[in-house]
Amino acid sequence: MESQHQDLTILDNRSTAEEFFLPHGHGKRVIAISVNDTQNSDDVVKWALENIIDKDSDLVVLINVRVINRTADFAAIGGYAEDPLSIEREKEYSHNIVKKYGVKMRQDGYNVKAYSLVGDAGPEIVKKTIELNADHLVIGTRGLSGLKKVFLGSVSEYCSKHCKCAITIVKTQ
C-alpha cells in the first residue's frame, strides 16, 4: 500500500521493487538511508548527500521502521487488542519522519522514494534493501554502551552483518 504526502509517495512492507522501475525508472544506483526522529538522522542524511549520492542519477530510498509495540504482544496473550488509534498515530509519525527528509530532497532535485515499515528495525531494513537490490545502505549509530546494546540491540550492527549491499555506518555525536 502507499500514501501520498506532498508529492512524496510513502510505501510499506508489501511494496516491491517493481514500484521503482515503473513508471519513473531510476539512475545507476539505489542508495538506501535509514532515518528516524533523532538529530542523528539529520547528520546521516547530510553526510550521505555530501559524500555518496549523485543527485543526477541515483535513486534515494528513505526507510523508517516503526517498532512493533511490545505491550500489544503481551496484551494479545491476555486477549486485549492494540488500540487502532495508537497504530494510526504511529503510522502518521513514521510518515512524517520520511516526509521531513523526502519532501526537502525532492525539492532539491533528488529522485526519492520513501518506505514506512513495521517490524524489528534491523531485519526490516535488511529485507527491504535485499528486495530493492540496493547498492548501498547508509545508517547511523547511536553509540550505545555495552549494556544498553545487549538489551536494546544495535540496528547498525545487525545491518552490517546481514546486508548484501555495501553499508556505511555514520558515527554521529
TrEMBL record:
Transmembrane segments: none annotated. It comes from the Eukaryota. Gene3D superfamilies: HUPs. It comes from Furculomyces boomerangus. It holds the Pfam family Usp. This is UspA domain-containing protein. Residues 31-171 form the UspA domain. PANTHER family: ADENINE NUCLEOTIDE ALPHA HYDROLASES-LIKE SUPERFAMILY PROTEIN, UNIVERSAL STRESS PROTEIN FAMILY PROTEIN.
